[in-house]
Amino acid sequence: MAASQTTQLAVAAREVSNSRETRRLRRAGSVPGIVYGGGSDPQAIAVEERALRLALAHAGAVLELSIDGADATPVVLKDAQHHPVDGETLHIDFLRVRLDRAIQAMVPLELFGIEDSPGVDEGGVLEQITRELSVEALPTEIPDAIRHDVSALELNDTLTLEAITAPAGVTLLDDLQETVIATLSVPRLAPEPEEIEEETELVGEDGEPLAEGEAPPEGEEGGGPAEAKSDGEGGGDGGGDSSSEG
């Protein structure tokens, strides 16, 4: 559905300040931002957080922005930065537009009828690849979202952009045949980890494993040095006896 109505939003002009002043502004319940484009100089602004939230919730693509009570200017929200934890809006960018000139925008793509599709009924899982579409239209014709029925998808089907019908006055800018919207396939089973057999090996003095049948170095099995010493002592005694007999 296109956004044919506009929403008023009152903001205040502000001086570009350092990060300390920006944090103070947020603590006071306001959101810093900037308005640019339309052939005019950029203007730093501040808007009350609650008013901004309500305006964006009820607005279409276009907002009528009034700075310090001046005549309203049509703008579109170009970017919004949010806190990664609590989702608080940290900064906003508005772009001035002319209502008689087409603009480009990103529009959410919503798929419905998933549970009714034959592929899902057969055990398949739908994976949505593309969640936003690049479109071109007059500012008041930019839709809040584009919705598409996937209740007819079969198992192993691939949905591309050429199957999506854009609202009247809206042009889809992405490649119709190459842009994959969603796939419906049987989920892959994760392979079971292979069991690792542990083996205890004898190693030599250099740390390398011994070949099968190879004797370990002296001192690694009982009796090696003791037997050698015993043989040496026996030989000495024998020599003494022989000398005595002589």
In a few lines, what is going on in this structure?
By secondary structure, the protein is α+β, with helices and mostly antiparallel strands.
Task: Tell me what the structure shows.
Helices cover 18% and strands 34% of the residues. With 246 residues, it is α+β, with helices and mostly antiparallel strands. The chain has two domains: 7-97, Ribosomal Protein L25, Chain P (Beta Barrel); 104-185, Ribosomal protein L25, C-terminal domain (RNA Polymerase Alpha Subunit, Chain A, domain 2), CATH 2.170.120.20. Strand 4 and strand 5 (73-82) form a beta hairpin. The longest helix has 22 residues, at 224-245. The N and C termini lie far apart (126 Å). Residues 222-230 and 232-246 have low confidence and may be disordered.
Query: What Rg is obtained from the alpha carbons, in whole angstroms?
Result: 39 Å
Major pleated sheet? 6 strands, mixed, barrel
Strand order of the largest sheet: 1-3-2-6-5-4
Q: Residue share in helices?
A: 10-25%
Fraction of residues in β-strands? 25-35%
Tally the helices: what do you get? 4
Distance between the termini: 126 Å
Main CATH class of the largest domain: Mainly Beta
Poorly predicted spans = 222-230, 232-246
The general outline is: flat
Q: Which architecture name of the largest domain does CATH use?
A: Beta Barrel
The total strand number stands at 13
Structural category: alpha+beta
Oligomer type: single chain
What's the average pLDDT?
83
What order do the helices and strands follow? EHEEHEEEEHEEEEEEH
- The CATH topology annotation of the largest domain reads as Ribosomal Protein L25, Chain P
Q: What's the CATH H-level superfamily name of the largest domain?
A: Ribosomal Protein L25, Chain P
Count of the domains? 2
